[in-house]
Amino acid sequence: MQDWQYVNTNCLEITIEMGCYKFPQKNMLPQLWDEHKYSLLAYMEYVHRGIRGFVLDQRGHPVKNAVLSINQGKNITTTDEGEFWRILLPGRYTVLVSHRKYLPQILNITVDEGSAKLINVTLEQKLCRENTVDSIRVRGEGAVRIAVFGVDSLGKSIVQELANATCLPEDLFVEILQQSTLHLFPSMSAERALYLK
């Protein structure tokens, strides 16, 4: 369970083996505590070292599942609230903050002795080189023409998300966009119907 917790939740669980007896007698516990309490408490204080903070988008909303890659050690992933934390020794680090929907950001940070350094990161959304006519998004260059349009506010929102998802080449859309041209209309009107002819 320890490895799974560390990889998936950034929770550092440990097993402390303090003596030769798997099940020490009750009268042995005070001595075991006295022999190990300072090292255990010092270890627990490490939670306050390193870096901590939030990854947010430009509107101040949390970015879930952003990945922080540090030039040494394991990658960490932000929580649903965009929160992250990483125990680090004092020193200089290069941190890459990335997410598939946002432009990556590289931070050069210095971690000092003492409390964890608060670092809040704002990521910018990826922008396409838009091939647009009156807010119509065109993706791909294939012979098959496909039109997708929204008929209400929810449809408009979904078409805009599709435009963002197809903005940069991703495995899911590469083959489709090689064989077809996708015309995305956030909303439909009589003038835009003429565009389809």
Automatic annotation (TrEMBL):
<dbReference type="InterPro" id="IPR000834">
    <property type="entry name" value="Peptidase_M14"/>
</dbReference>
<dbReference type="GO" id="GO:0008270">
    <property type="term" value="F:zinc ion binding"/>
</dbReference>
<dbReference type="Pfam" id="PF13620">
    <property type="entry name" value="CarboxypepD_reg"/>
</dbReference>
<dbReference type="InterPro" id="IPR050753">
    <property type="entry name" value="Peptidase_M14_domain"/>
</dbReference>
<dbReference type="GO" id="GO:0004181">
    <property type="term" value="F:metallocarboxypeptidase activity"/>
</dbReference>
<protein>
    <submittedName>
        <fullName>Bm11936</fullName>
    </submittedName>
</protein>
<dbReference type="InterPro" id="IPR008969">
    <property type="entry name" value="CarboxyPept-like_regulatory"/>
</dbReference>
<dbReference type="GO" id="GO:0006518">
    <property type="term" value="P:peptide metabolic process"/>
</dbReference>
<dbReference type="GO" id="GO:0016485">
    <property type="term" value="P:protein processing"/>
</dbReference>
<dbReference type="GO" id="GO:0005615">
    <property type="term" value="C:extracellular space"/>
</dbReference>
<feature type="active site" description="Proton donor/acceptor">
    <location>
        <position position="17"/>
    </location>
</feature>
<keyword id="KW-0325">Glycoprotein</keyword>
<comment type="similarity">
    <text>Belongs to the peptidase M14 family.</text>
</comment>
<feature type="domain" description="Peptidase M14">
    <location>
        <begin position="1"/>
        <end position="47"/>
    </location>
</feature>
